[in-house]
Design brief:
The chain is mainly alpha-helical. It is built from 8 helices and 4 strands. The protein is globular and about 45 Å long. The protein starts with a strand and ends in a 5-residue tail after the last strand.
């Protein structure tokens, strides 16, 4: 079973201390069933209009000072799942803020609104799936993170789409880079399915920014392969958008 240590330093630090056995396929299926599409939409607040509050990401306690310190231990699959969960929280919170913004309808045309609502729904599903999978493995998910979207102008099409592309490309690179750390074939299969959706998201956003484009600049190399990013690079890139401090430990050498 997984172990979690909570310490009061900068605020609360979470470290997974013990290896957690990989889930078997039935358990993985149970996690998916427990967070069915209907359940995901209920939990994420997606209904008519797909409007959710920007406060969908909250701190793990009520103390507002500087955010928490969250430690991801890559010595077990659960640490990698929590890494993915952290990134999905960021993306889900971003799109929730986009579609819930008062200027959403005036900033984007009808087709763009439909696309962004779909992306918001997908990211909410991904986030909730990881939370359920981690709990289903007998471990504890990291707490809700506190976003910092102060640098984003949610009334600006270019600001929103530019940030969306950054997040989607970052997500694809993160999954590609973390796949090598996953021991469970079940988890690796799910990660492969999710990263393919993230890549589709990145492609459609790139097309909205530059018509007929299929990717952002520099994410596909000369061999036709997408980038793979190490956790240190991913967490550094995500840091400006999260008030909490996230650190990775026991990351195996590549």
């Amino acid at each position: 079973m997984g172990g979690v240590e909570r310490t009061r330093g900068t605020r609360c630090a979470l470290v997974f201390l013990f290896p957690v056995p990989s889930m078997s396929s039935p358990l993985l299926q149970d996690a998916a069933a427990a967070t069915s599409r209907r359940d995901f939409f209920k939990r994420a607040g997606f209904g008519l209009g797909a409007v959710v509050a920007a406060s969908s990401l909250q701190a793990c306690d009520s103390d507002p000072v500087d955010g928490d310190v969250v430690t991801l231990d890559f010595s077990s699959d659960v640490g990698v799942l929590n890494y993915a969960y952290a990134l999905e929280q960021l993306e889900a919170g971003f799109y929730a803020t986009v579609v819930g913004n008062a200027a959403f309808a005036s900033t984007f045309n009808a087709d763009e609104q439909a696309i962004l609502r779909d992306l918001a729904a997908h990211e909410g599903i991904h986030r909730d799936f990881f939370e359920a999978a981690i709990s289903g493995a007998g471990a504890t998910p990291i707490p809700d993170l506190t976003p910092d979207f102060s640098s984003i102008d949610f009334t600006s099409r270019s600001s929103v789409l530019g940030t969306a592309l950054v997040f989607e490309d970052l997500g694809v690179g993160a999954y590609n880079g973390a796949g090598q750390y996953i021991a469970s074939a079940d988890y690796l299969l799910i990660a492969g399915k999710i990263v393919s959706v993230e890549a589709r998201h990145a492609s459609v956003i790139a097309g909205l920014i530059t018509p007929n484009s299929i990717s952002g600049s520099g994410v596909v190399d000369n061999n036709g392969l997408d980038q793979a990013l190490m956790p240190s690079a991913v967490l550094s890139a995500a840091a400006p958008f999260i008030q909490d401090t996230i650190r990775a430990i026991n990351v195996p050498a590549s």
